Amino acid sequence: MLTALKIDLQDIQHSEVGEARLGSLTDSLELVDRLLTQVRSLALDLRPSLLDDLGLVPALRWYVNRQAARNGWILSLSLERIAERIPAPIEVSCFRVVQEALTNIAKYAKAKTVDLTLCRQAQNITLIIQDDGVGFDVMLAKQRALGGQSIGLLGLEERVRLAGGSFAISSVPSEGTRLELCFPLTEQQLTTPEVTAEVISP
């Protein structure tokens, strides 16, 4: 719809209009261009094509680089014994949790450093997200979620459980927050390991 609106505005711009209206049309076109850019960026963040085409590891590298640059974090990403592809439901769940967690850290945590670890331990895939932010009262947050004030934590936990995983969160006020997800793998899903570690800073 925005693209169609832009085309209509361009058609009007190329017709005979007064200088005052021409200035307004130019401003409107610039606004539509900015909106198109924002919508495309949002769509890319929600589900990057990298996740479907190349898998979780490239998608995480791209996303955490993007968020570290936006928020000025020192962000480390450790990938331990991770094969090129892991089962799609686990990839999607891990990516969504990282999205939600980093969004919450940016909004509330006032963190300077964020550490992400994705690793294979025995027959499990484990994702750990930890920050050095202000922390919060986990029990109080869960009570509020159950009362309908916020569904963030419950939504994350439900997403992980639907993919067959477990979800744990710990946080101490003024000491940061730690999320840990664990997904069991079948024998057929255990493949050749890959070991890498990265530190991403602004």
Describe what this molecule looks like in 3D.
- There is one protein chain.
- The chain has seven helices and six strands; from the N terminus they run ααααβαββααβββ.
- About 5% of the residues have low confidence.
- The protein is α+β, with helices and mostly antiparallel strands and 202 residues long.
- Helix 1 runs antiparallel to helix 2, helix 4 runs parallel beside helix 5 and helix 5 packs antiparallel against helix 7.
- The protein is globular and about 65 Å long.
- The chain folds into two domains: 42 residues, no CATH class; 152 residues, Histidine kinase-like ATPase, C-terminal domain (Heat Shock Protein 90), CATH 3.30.565.10.
- It has a six-stranded mixed β-sheet, with helices on one face.
**What top-tier CATH class of the largest domain fits best?**
Alpha Beta
- CATH architecture name of the largest domain: 2-Layer Sandwich
User: How many strands in all?
Assistant: 6
Structural domain tally: 2
Low-confidence stretches: 36-46
Number of distinct helices: 7
User: What is the helical fraction, as a range of percent?
Assistant: 40-55%
What would you report as the Rg, rounded to the nearest angstrom?
21 Å
Query: Major sheet: order of its strands?
Result: 4-5-3-2-1-6
By CATH, the superfamily of the largest domain comes out as Histidine kinase-like ATPase, C-terminal domain
N to C succession of SSEs: HHHHEHEEHHEEE
Terminal CA distance reads 36 Å
Shape: globular
Strand percentage lies at: 15-25%
Structural class assignment: alpha+beta
Major sheet attributes: 6 strands, mixed
CATH fold naming of the largest domain: Heat Shock Protein 90
The residue-averaged pLDDT reads 78
